[in-house]
Design brief:
The complex is a heterotrimer of chains A (242), B (62) and C (500). Chain B is mainly α. Helices cover 58% and strands 0% of the residues of chain B. In chain C, 73% of the residues lie in helices and 0% in strands. Classes of the chains: A alpha+beta (242), B mainly alpha (62), C mainly alpha (500).
Chain lengths: 242, 62, 500
């Protein structure tokens, strides 16, 4: 079975936030008002932010400033703390290494959100709503597993959600290959952020396949993870700057 | 060093703690056992018969 | 043989249960006024979602969880007092065992309410029954809480059984029929013969033995909700024992307040719950104080010394950051409590020294509070570090003088002082739970620091919770005697026996 992994080259990332926007449009992430966003309730499955987070990001004097940014999807940890603490298995690691989310079973206890050291999980504080004509652009895709909603269709209030490596695209690609009577190839499936990335800084593929791009990039000297020693064994790889 | 997950016993434990529904079943068993023991204890106490049927207001001092 | 239970006893303990007088209805009305607004706001929260709180990312847990841990903590009182003192055959526990045990049961019930209030989808609560995963610490908590609630309820019922039979036999003629039926059904045909008593005592001893590990397990498991995560400030190995100690400490505080409330509500109870109880339990209270300080020192000193990069922001927030008022306020409350409790043990000497006058103490208290508030508010006018140092020194001086001045008053008023000390402990322990949750949540590692302050909904629901707790307490003790009649009689028989 595949072991899906994303590699992000921070040297190439220009922090254009195209990935965040593409993710929002692909996954029907609700928008919140400016006051809610200031209170920290904005939902951004893929988030672009300065790194390190708590130190002044700009170095140097204008116009010779230097800023470092990171773009962060879910780490899809191999020893995910969120999976370990969910009391009802609303989140679980599937056989292909993706940490999945079951919106129909989630009881909203938010233990997973509190366990995640990376802050990739978000909660629907109110029922999702979209402003103006945004509602006309919802992604109609829907992924149901054993009758439970897991895909990008609109989530109800009171459940936790997060980046799923666009797993509905994986299912779609597999079904298309089956319908066309051929084998599924790993490069038929890319998450929306990888597809959109302006600087071609994101790569996606099967980490267990020695010939894949991600597998070869993982051997790079620049390859690192966020919070390497959190104990969660994060899978999403970063190629550090410089 | 033998990694525990290679052994079937630990694979069974992993299944036990990970499968949804098993946790509820275990808790249900514990609670059921507790409640049953409480009910049986109450029956054991109230069904006690003594030769001397005098009603004491407090336990007999030993 | 002298009658153990006199007519005066019956007047004190039984008659009030059948008097639905003005005082009772006023109390119920007042409690409803306090409780209902929160419930209305809860219904609003059910419709709108948890957005009505101030919870945000990364502060996903807030006042409800603090209340949850706090309420679980205070429910340790019953176990320690009733079970441990029973097994140690300590006589002075007899009048207050019932209040202690019932506090455990009611506290656990309201704790369960907090979790339901905090869930994003309470309508899916059944999922925990259908899909529960044993690996999740929350399931351990559910298991432990349910087991403890059931066992404590059973213990309460066992020890209530002879008194229910007593009520069945002592119900006045004019009492409503449903009430007589209630007692006769609940008494399970208790006749009080020798064999029944022997078996009852065996059962009580056995349940007491089981209650202790189950009680300790609940607080430990609650601490594991935090210490099994990888978050700084939470992944402390000491959290298990720390929670148990804090639980016993706060449970005793609540017990004192509940007993004082009960004796104020029904003055007859004062002849059974005498100063002896306050004095004896006061010793254990002092011991718990020092044990609590020992654990807090361990927790703080170790992390502050290591200054590990990812851990230290959380500790710094508590020591001198935005949680400093809450952290140091908690410590000051506990210091004041310990002082009061120790003062009560020291024989008082009349003195002319103005330092020890109550008036001085009160003035110093006001000054200390004012300076504390000034420091806590971190006003821009006092960013000058010399001024802050002066204020800090002034606060310490005022604080010590306040305690010195009020010592005489404390020594002269045993029960009010104990109640004040208990209130300090309860407030301090609530702050302790706050200080465990909030600094870690507001200082995430790769999310910008945020703030959290409970909204009207959360405050109202907290008040409602305590209103519900008191309501259950008041109504329960309208139907069942608040003093364990048979235990008091047994105690008297023992005294007469040893005196003969």
């Amino acid at each position: 079975m595949a072991n899906w992994c994303m590699v992000i080259d921070l040297e190439k990332c220009v922090a254009c936030q195209g990935c965040s926007v593409a993710c929002r449009m692909e996954n029907n992430t609700p928008v919140v008002s400016p006051e809610e966003a200031k209170n920290g309730r904005a939902i951004r499955w893929n988030d672009v932010f300065p790194l390190p987070v708590h130190i002044a990001p700009e170095q140097g004097e204008y116009p010779n400033v230097k800023t470092h940014y990171a773009t962060r999807p879910c780490m899809h940890c191999e020893n995910a703390p969120c999976v370990k603490t969910c009391p009802v298995q609303a989140t679980y690691i599937d056989e292909e290494g993706i940490v999945r989310q079951n919106y129909d079973r989630c009881i909203g206890c938010r233990f997973c959100t509190v366990s995640c050291p990376y802050g990739v999980r978000y909660f629907n504080w109110y029922a999702p709503q979209w402003e103006g004509t945004l509602e006309n652009h919802l992604n109609p895709d829907e992924l149901s597993v054993n009758g439970s909603l897991e895909g990008p269709a609109v989530r109800p209030v009171g459940v936790v959600e997060k980046c799923t490596y666009c797993v509905h695209r994986l299912v779609k690609a597999r079904e298309r290959a089956a319908a066309e009577g051929r084998d599924f190839r790993a490069d038929e499936y890319v998450p929306a952020c990888v597809q959109t990335c302006t600087g071609k800084a994101r790569y996606f593929g099967d980490l267990d396949d020695p010939d894949s791009t991600v597998s070869q990039l993982s051997k790079s000297l620049r390859a690192t993870h966020l919070l390497e020693d959190s104990g969660a064994h994060p899978k999403t790889l970063y190629l550090a700057e410089g | 060093m033998n990694f525990p997950m290679d052994q079937p016993l630990f694979q069974f434990f992993y299944w036990l703690v990970n499968t949804p529904g098993i946790g509820s079943a275990v808790i249900g068993l514990l609670v059921g056992a507790a409640v049953t023991s409480f009910a049986l204890t109450l029956r054991w106490i109230t069904s006690a018969k003594s030769e001397n049927e005098e009603a004491l207001p407090f336990p007999p001092q030993h | 043989m002298q009658p153990i239970l006199t007519a005066q006893d019956r007047e004190n303990l039984v008659s009030p249960l059948f008097k639905f007088d003005r005082q009772f209805w006023m109390t119920i009305a007042a409690l409803l006024v306090v409780t209902l607004p929160g419930l209305a706001l809860y219904v609003r929260q059910l419709f709108l979602g948890l957005g009505v709180t101030d919870l945000n990312r990364p502060v996903f847990w807030g006042a409800y969880l603090v209340n949850f841990i706090f309420l679980i903590g205070i429910s340790m009182a019953g176990t320690v007092i009733s079970a441990v003192l029973h097994l140690l055959k300590i006589e002075w526990r007899r009048p207050i065992t019932r209040i202690a045990e019932s506090l455990t049961v009611f506290g656990l019930m309201t704790a369960g309410l907090q979790i339901i209030m905090d869930m994003g989808r309470p309508d899916r609560l059944v999922n925990t029954l259908l899909y529960g995963r044993l690996q999740a610490p929350l399931m351990w908590d559910i298991a432990s809480l349910t087991l403890y609630l059931l066992t404590a309820s059973f213990a309460l019922y066992l020890q209530l059984l002879p008194d229910i039979a007593f009520m069945r036999d002592s119900t006045p003629e004019n009492a409503p029929t449903w009430r007589k039926k209630l007692y006769s059904t609940l008494s399970l045909g208790w006749r009080g013969n020798k064999e029944q008593w022997t078996r009852l005592e065996k059962a009580i001893t056995t349940v007491s033995i089981f209650l202790i590990p189950i009680g300790i397990s609940l607080h430990t498991v609650t601490s594991w909700l935090f210490s099994t995560t990888v978050q700084p400030g939470w992944k402390s190995t000491i959290l298990g024992p720390y929670f148990v100690v804090g639980a016993i400490y706060s449970g005793m505080g609540l017990l004192f307040i509940a007993v004082a409330f009960a004796t104020q509500y029904n003055h007859h109870l004062k002849s059974y719950i005498t100063d002896t109880f306050y004095k004896n339990l006061g010793w254990i209270f002092i011991v718990m104080s020092f044990v609590w300080f020992y654990f807090t020192l361990n927790e703080t000193l170790v992390v502050a010394t290591e200054q590990e990069t990812l851990e230290f922001p959380v500790m710094a927030a508590k020591l001198f950051g935005e949680f400093a008022p809450a952290f140091w306020g908690m410590n000051l409350l506990m210091i004041a409590t310990t002082w009061i409790l120790i003062a009560l043990k020291v024989p008082s000497k009349p003195t002319r020294n103005p330092l020890f006058k109550t008036a001085t103490g009160l003035v110093m208290t006001v000054l200390a509070v004012v300076v504390f508030v000034l420091l806590a508010l971190s006003l821009p006018a006092i960013t000058n570090s010399i001024l802050q140092t002066v204020l800090l020194a002034a606060f310490i001086v005022f604080f010590i003088l306040a305690l010195l001045g009020l010592t005489g008053w404390f020594q002269a008023h045993l029960i009010p002082s104990t109640v004040i000390a208990s209130a300090f402990v309860l407030f301090g322990m609530w702050l302790e739970r706050w200080n465990i949750l909030m600094p870690t949540l507001t200082h995430a590692r790769i999310i910008p620091y945020t703030t959290y302050f409970p909204t009207v909904t959360e405050v109202a629901l907290t008040i409602s919770t305590f209103g519900i707790l008191t309501l259950i307490f008041v109504v329960f003790y309208k139907f069942f005697p608040s003093i364990s009649i048979w235990e008091v009689e047994a105690g008297r028989a023992l005294q007469h026996g040893s005196g003969d």
